[in-house]
From TrEMBL:
A GO CC annotation given for this chain: plasma membrane
A Pfam family of this chain: DUF423
UniProt similarity note: Belongs to the UPF0382 family.
TM region positions: 47-64, 71-91, 97-121
Protein's name according to its UniProt entry: Uncharacterized membrane protein YgdD, TMEM256/DUF423 family
Membrane topology field: Multi-pass membrane protein
Organism listed in the record: Nitrosomonas aestuarii
The entry's keywords: Membrane, Transmembrane, Transmembrane helix
Subcellular location: Membrane
Length: 124
């Protein structure tokens, strides 16, 4: 499973870099400052948790049988989709109703880190 999270982390970091460039160069003159700020918030949390996925992959090299560490990684990926992706779409479409989904992504991120802490606390 470690390879899956390493791959997911690498792919997500690629998307972060591409989206960052798109935001800085392609959206700078198109979006309002408010929408650009929303886009960048999604990007900021995306990069943190893409790195988190890499971290999960590395941890699974050492704790290969930890279901909690795996769960933490899946929760991070879910958070990327529910938090960052909704912010990207909201900033591009100005559909502010998508903001109702975003807190579920934030909760997923927080739960992921707590689950990881518990997993490491319990690890042998």
């Amino acid at each position: 499973m470690h390879k899956t999270f390493l791959l997911l982390g690498a792919i997500n970091i690629f998307f972060c870099i591409a989206l960052g460039a798109f935001g800085a160069h392609g959206l700078k003159n198109i979006l309002s400052n408010d929408m650009l700020s929303i886009f960048h918030t999604g990007l900021q949390y995306h990069i943190y948790h893409a790195q988190g996925l890499l971290f999960i992959g590395l941890l699974l090299l050492h704790y290969a049988k930890s279901r909690l560490i795996e769960l933490s990684g899946w929760l991070m990926l879910l958070g990327i989709v529910l938090f960052s992706l909704t912010l990207y779409v909201m900033s591009l479409t100005e559909l502010r109703i998508l903001g109702m989904i975003t807190p579920f992504g934030g909760a997923s991120f927080m739960i992921a880190w707590i689950v990881l802490a518990v997993a490491l606390w319990k690890a042998k």
